[in-house]
Amino acid sequence: MDRRRFLSLTTATGAGVGMATVGFGQAAWAASYPYFNRRVPDEAHTKMGELAPYGITSFAFTPSNGWVVVTQDGRFFARGIPDACFAELGKLTKAGRRIHCVAFPPEGGDRWVITTDKGVSARGIPTECQQRITASYGAGKQVVNVAFPPAGGNRWSVVDTDGFYVRGIDDECYQMMRNLTQGGRRVTHVAFPRAGGWAVVAQDEFHARGIDDECYQQMGKLAAGGWQLHNVTFSPTGGWSLCSRGKVPSLPADRVRQVENAVRDGGIWQRMGYWKTPGVAIAVVTGNRVAWSTGYGWLEAGSGAAAHPETAFQAASISKAVASVGVLRLMQTLKKPLSSDIRPYLGWPLPRRSCVSADAVPTIDLLLTHRAGVIGRGSTSPADVCSGFNTTAGGGFAGYGPNATVPSLLQIMNGEGNSPKIELTTDPGAEYHYSGAGFVLLQRMVEQQTGLSMAQYMDKEVFAPLGMKTSSYALSPAFELASGHTSTGAVISGKRNRYPESAAAGLYTNVLDLCGLVCYLNKAWTASGDIAGPLSKESVRTLLSKGPQPDMGRGLFIAGSGTKNFSFTHDGSNYGFTSVFTGYPELGAGYAVLANGDNGNLVGEIAASIRSTYGWA
């Protein structure tokens, strides 16, 4: 059975389970340190019972069902392992080396690796794996675990006392290794069953996929007794073994697990299933740096590619917030005020309805705050009305599917795409109407004034200076991209719609880039003067200060002005994608959540869990 599990052991108590007998004559627990075997050779089980009181550091199987068990004080016993490996174990233990790990590549033969407290001995393992292990020791780190997936070849996992390194393993396994280490934990053990699946252990937590049900249950029993899971081993014949050599150490609170578990009614995995969202990425900022970042689930339902913090999602209307940074950069460069009338910058006559005053002035500032009289998609019909607009249906764009011709920006402005023409519908400044169309005009201004596309301009003036290497307003950037999904969890046609209305809805980005932007804006807001980046301190203050719309800066919604919980934020919803990001300048904090599902409730629930865990208003 497939399992996802995050289990905290730090609050568990008890002295473990007493001696019991289970199927195949395998004793379940030793009197000192617990262990559990199922379908392993009888002699191996007997020797584990004899050696468990001394603290087992490694129990491993060869591909031909040979085995070896080693203790922390240098005792070992082996049966059917390569002669050279057995001889090397004797030499190392006689020399006083502590054996951390013995492992055997799935190809069999005279292939093995032994890692110790002072170095490595190996034969016939993948060259790159050997190099990685050697590099760890060269950097003063000890390798505590080496594991090889059953497919063989250059596929391996190396865990040292500081981190882990992998090649060619299951992508979700890698995803969860990263996830488990984000909350201040270290991966300590990785294991791969011969029939597929994997198990990852990180001090007081573990995660498994596709392993034997009983093995999974017994891992939970060890955890419930407060024991640290030190060794997970799978035999080539479908057997398995678990053992511990001590209780879980005292560890600080794991913020990542706290956030995951506090997501409404069951935790993040349950809520992803409930909202039929295959993939999510999260990053959290504290102290104006990314404190942790994680991915959950899949880039696309049914695929083998996991979502990671580096994965690019459509950010939807967060595009407006990021584009606003570019607009203020342009006005700063042109040395023009935001109070400027946008029409001279467009190279296009902006129409107005007959009821709009002839002397109406749609300023750049009003466009940035959705008060310029440009009403968005869904609220402009019929074309001759000047009141009674549907304020809940406007603002967005539908995008263009795989078989649709993508219009030019000018065609969109003239109403020749799948949205109404852009025009002044109400007097500028008189009313608030959330308006993607207004940001299309801002995009047109940027392109007309710079001679660059929105994508080129933002790359040059915003993304490059801020190191946002996986952010783009291009229609189809060359990043690893998540696929969008309907509210039923099905992949949308074409995987992603295209949005030539770039400034309004066309941004691709990842949570690390968004949190990098959060850090920049936080620091620029609180700095005594200008800092490196696209905007001056004055421009950042304008961006994040109340403008013509009371709850907005420019392109960003703000709350708590003048308090320590002052924040800026924007969310987004494109077909198949939802998103939110928030910054707290006075706290040096923030977060970003990107999801490839069509229901925005999930990102809201995750954001609420982050705020609750950290105590942010």
From TrEMBL:
**Which leading EC class covers this enzyme?**
hydrolase
Checking InterPro entries in the record gives: AmpC-like, Beta-lactam-related, Beta-lactam/transpept-like, Quinoprotein_ADH-like_sf, TAT_signal
Recorded hits in SUPFAM superfamilies, A to Z, give: beta-lactamase/transpeptidase-like, Quinoprotein alcohol dehydrogenase-like
| Key word Hydrolase present | yes
What GO molecular-function term can you cite, just one?
hydrolase activity
Q: Which residues form the Beta-lactamase-related domain?
A: 275-601
Documented EC number(s): 3.-.-.-
Q: Which domain of life is it from?
A: Bacteria
Keywords, ordered alphabetically: Hydrolase
Name of the protein this chain belongs to: Serine hydrolase domain-containing protein
Organism this protein belongs to: Microtetraspora fusca
